Amino acid sequence: TSLLLMAGIVVAVGLCRRLTRRRLRSHPRLCTFLLEMFSTFQICACTNELCLLGNAEPKPHTGLTLTYGFTVLHGLTLPGSTCNPCGTLQPMWGGGTSVKMGGLKIGAQFVAAVLARVFMHFLWRLEMAEPHFGALSQGCSNPMQTTEVQAFCIELLFSVVFQLTVLRVESINPKYRVHLIALLITMLVYAGGNLTGAIFNPALAFSLHPNCFYDKFWSYSLVYWIAPSLGKFLIFYVF
User: Which intervals of the chain form a coiled coil (predicted)?
Assistant: First the structure.
């Protein structure tokens, strides 16, 4: 049921993106906002559901296999979208994108993060699948299972590795590139998922753990917002 739910989300987002491109060509800003919002919504909604399947047996093989598969699916179905505020910062800082357009995309990403969380909570209330039972009573699921300093360093390191890899594989054929990036993300989740969740995406982190940001805003913003953004700036300055 969970897999069918995520597949339905991917199909629905694909239809919305196609309709947006056809109907809003004459409104580039609105078109850009909606495309980025729909794309980020897909990633956030599917990842919220994947987190419920992380404890499925056999562990951790099921969770890692689903992570790899859906990362490939996102890469193939969401071309042209960054879905990550850190990925939007680079063209803004380098002058390839105006500050207004970059801010529009980042705003769309966080709007999508909130909408995805609200949407998934609605579906979890229906209890269509076994993992949904009790999902709403978790509150802050506390993904940070280490000290704040170590969590900051892990997210910073993972962001640097991820962003550097994305830059290095830009010249590779897209149908192969998406598998390389998916493999990297799966490896990072395996290496640090039990410590910080290996998120390195501020919008996704806010969608997955909003209650944690309410309870410990400064700690979680430092680890899940500032650390990946700092990693992006380090890559920009060094490379």
Answer: none
